[in-house]
Amino acid sequence: MVRAQDVHKSFGHVEVLKGIDLEVKPGEVFCLIGPSGSGKSTFLRCINHLEKINAGRLYVDGELVGYRQQGDKLYELRDREVAMKRRDIGMVFQRFNLFPHMTAVENVMEAPVQVKGANRAQARERAMQLLERVGLADRAGHYPSQLSGGQQQRVAIARALAMDPKLMLFDEPTSALDPELVGDVLDVMRDLAESGMTMVVVTHEMGFAREVGDSLVFMDDGVVVESGHPRDVLTNPQHERTQSFLSKVL
Ligand code: ATP
Ligand code: MG
C-alpha cells in the first residue's frame, strides 16, 4: 500500500529524511517510533502530499506520490491531481483540528458534501453511522468545545473515515490527551485495524504497537534503524540506538 525507496527530504540545507526504505502491506498496522526530530511526521506528510520528496521514490497503492512517470521522465502533478489523490488518504493529527463552528455530525459530513458533492441527507446518515462506530452517536449535535479531547479525536477519526480512505495515517493521535482519555481513542483504532484498514501510526503507545501492530519501524535521525515485528523489536532490539530509545520510553 505504501512503498518508500531511498526517500530523501530536505528543508533548505537540512536533510531530514536520509534515504527511507520501507513497505506497508495492505491491511497492515504499521507503527513508526523514534525520538523527537527523527523525521516521523515529515515522512507521514510526504505520504499525504503535504511535502514533496527531493529524491527516491514513494508509492501509494502502486502510484507515485506527487509525480507522474512517462517513460523515464517524471512530471510534477498539478494541484488538482494532488487533491484527487489526497482524497484517498485519511490523516489524524495530534491536535484534533475540527471545525469549531460545526457540530460533530457536521464536521463528519463536511468533506463528502463539499469535496465529493454527496447528497446532504445521505452524508448525514453516513456521518451518524460513523459517529456510532466511534461511540459518539449521542454527541452528534455537540460542538467541539463541548467535547473532551478524546471525543474530539474520535470525531476526527470519523471525519477521516467519511471519505472512505484506502489508507489512514495517524500522527501521535493520543499524545495531546489526558491519560484517562487515551484508551477510548486506542479502542477505536483497534476496531479500525480489525476491520482491515491499512494504517500507518506514529505513536509513543508501545502497548498499542505491541498488541495491534503488524510491523514496527524505529527511525532515528532520518533513517530506518531497525524494523520487524513489534514484539521482536520491542522486546529484543538489536541496535544500540533502539535499545537506548526504548529504555527511555518503556
Ligand atoms: P516529534 O516526535 O517531535 O513529532 P518528528 O520525528 O515527527 O518529531 P519531524 O517533525 O518530522 O520530526 O521533524 C524532523 C526535522 O525536520 C526536525 O528537525 C524539524 O525541525 C525539521 N522540520 C520539519 N518541518 C520543517 C519545515 N517545514 N521547515 C524546516 N524544518 C522542518
Ligand atoms: Mg512529529
TrEMBL record:
<dbReference type="InterPro" id="IPR017871">
    <property type="entry name" value="ABC_transporter-like_CS"/>
</dbReference>
<feature type="domain" description="ABC transporter">
    <location>
        <begin position="2"/>
        <end position="246"/>
    </location>
</feature>
<dbReference type="GO" id="GO:0005524">
    <property type="term" value="F:ATP binding"/>
</dbReference>
<comment type="similarity">
    <text>Belongs to the ABC transporter superfamily.</text>
</comment>
<keyword id="KW-0547">Nucleotide-binding</keyword>
<dbReference type="InterPro" id="IPR003439">
    <property type="entry name" value="ABC_transporter-like_ATP-bd"/>
</dbReference>
<protein>
    <recommendedName>
        <fullName>ABC-type polar-amino-acid transporter</fullName>
        <ecNumber>7.4.2.1</ecNumber>
    </recommendedName>
</protein>
<keyword id="KW-0067">ATP-binding</keyword>
<dbReference type="InterPro" id="IPR027417">
    <property type="entry name" value="P-loop_NTPase"/>
</dbReference>
<dbReference type="GO" id="GO:0016887">
    <property type="term" value="F:ATP hydrolysis activity"/>
</dbReference>
<dbReference type="Pfam" id="PF00005">
    <property type="entry name" value="ABC_tran"/>
</dbReference>
<keyword id="KW-0813">Transport</keyword>
<dbReference type="InterPro" id="IPR003593">
    <property type="entry name" value="AAA+_ATPase"/>
</dbReference>
<dbReference type="InterPro" id="IPR050086">
    <property type="entry name" value="MetN_ABC_transporter-like"/>
</dbReference>
<dbReference type="InterPro" id="IPR030679">
    <property type="entry name" value="ABC_ATPase_HisP-typ"/>
</dbReference>
<dbReference type="GO" id="GO:0015426">
    <property type="term" value="F:ATPase-coupled polar amino acid-transporter activity"/>
</dbReference>
